[in-house]
Amino acid sequence: MKITLQELYQSIDKNVSTVYVIPRIEIFSIHNPYLRLFYKEFLTTGTKSNIRVVSPHPLVPTFLFKRLFGEKSIVHYHWIQFYSIGGFFVLLGKMTCVLLYKTLGGKIIWSVHNKHLHSKKYLRLNTFFRKLMAKKADQLHVHCEEAARVMAPILKVPEEKFVIIEHPLYPVTTIDKKEAQIYCRNNLVQECDFTEPVFLMYGNIGEYKGITEVISLFTEDTGQLIISGNCKEGEHQYLERIKSGVAARKNIYLVNRFLSKEEEMYLFNAVDCVLFNFQDMLTSGSIMLALSYKKEIIVPYIGCVKNISGPGINTFTTSDELQVLIKTIAGKNKK
Fold first, then answer.
1. β-strands 107-111, 252-255: how paired?
2. Is the per-residue pLDDT at 79 higher than 60?
3. Which residues of the chain form beta strands (DSSP E)?
4. Are residues 292 and 172 in contact, defined by beta-carbon separation less than 8 angstroms?
5. What are the structural domains of the chain?
6. Are 73 and 207 in contact (CB under 8 A)?
7. In this structure, are residues 325 and 332 in contact, taking their beta carbons and an 8 Å threshold?
8. What is the largest CA-CA distance in the chain?
């Protein structure tokens, strides 16, 4: 069922006054504006909503203390995962506070962003926490109908427990492609001359992105490929495999670091097509970013992609179909 965020909160408690968001919006938004955009209608000065959205430190549970004094509130939780011993104890502390809040009559919403964890590290414990939250939450939020259908049997909850609020588009700036390419040559990818069609793989680097498989598909007459992103925790061996593949190709370039918003703007405006090869995915901020820039995209027909339609969206289901799409789009953008 598609609803607005305010409708979701008021359907759980029509008298709700405060929503506590975990993780902290201001900290998370330093590298990814998703939460700031998702809660925009509540964070904007002069909003008409009578619901206050705040992000407490998750280990200083003000929401728990205020619940003791009868505050009408909801906890909205995003991303349940950990990849280290320290991360385990942090997540355990968060979950303990949230579940204690639940026993005091508080209401919980969990936004389910991933089908599975991107790393198999501590998989059983992570799965336990995810299923526990799915069971205890009053509502589960996903970004599309397909995600609800996929996640219901995985989390062992009825499909009716899910609500759909779409992923926000990103505010972007479009500039002249030639200007953007000059900037990229001078500041980001000096080796790329942009004389051939340019494809981009963008976002945090991890094995589930299928980057090495794309590298193997790029012959010298296919075009040019830029791989840009920071390495995810625990994915350094995969990064080394990418570096080896890039070193063997003259038409593939790696920008292995976090980009500023300005650098990101120039990079997206400079390329012809944004390419994704996720092995398993519900939704992706990088896909929404590419759509915000109105770029042509190549993306596997999985997850929320099944609910996206429009010009410039090219889907595939097999490696052969991916290779055909790369060659077709390269031919269309031949310089």
1. unpaired
2. yes
3. 18-22, 52-54, 73-78, 107-111, 139-142, 162-164, 198-202, 224-228, 252-255, 273-275, 296-300, 313-316
4. yes
5. 5-164 (3.40.50), 177-332 (3.40.50.2000)
6. no
7. no
8. 68
Q: What is the pLDDT of residues 114-126, one digit of tens each?
A: 887 767 778 889 9
Token pair for residue 247? 């070193």
* Amino acid identity at 40: K
User: What is the tens place of the pLDDT at every residue in 270-311?
Assistant: 999 999 999 888 888 899 999 999 999 999 999 999 888 778
- Is residue 58 very low, low, confident or very high in pLDDT (cuts 50, 70, 90)? low
Look up residue 262 and give its two tokens. Answer: 């300005």
pTM of the full predicted structure?
Answer: 0.89
Sequence-distant (≥ 6) Cβ neighbours of residue 44 within 8 angstroms: none
Q: What pLDDT shows up at residue 47? A: 61
At 46, the pLDDT band (50, 70, 90 cuts) reads low
Rounded to an integer, what distance in angstroms lies between the CA atom of residue 163 and that of residue 196? 44
Give the integer Cα–Cα distance in Å for 62 and 138. 20
Q: Is the pLDDT of residue 1 over 70?
A: no
- Sheet of strand 198-202: strand arrangement: 252-255, 224-228, 198-202, 273-275, 296-300, 313-316
Reference 63, options 77, 52, 78, 75; nearest CA is 75
Mean of per-residue pLDDT scores for the chain: 91
Q: Are 6 and 49 in contact (CB under 8 A)?
A: yes
Question: Which DSSP string do the residues of 27-73 spell out, in sequence order?
Answer: HHTTT-THHHHHTHHHHSTT-----EEE---TTS-HHHHHHHTT--E
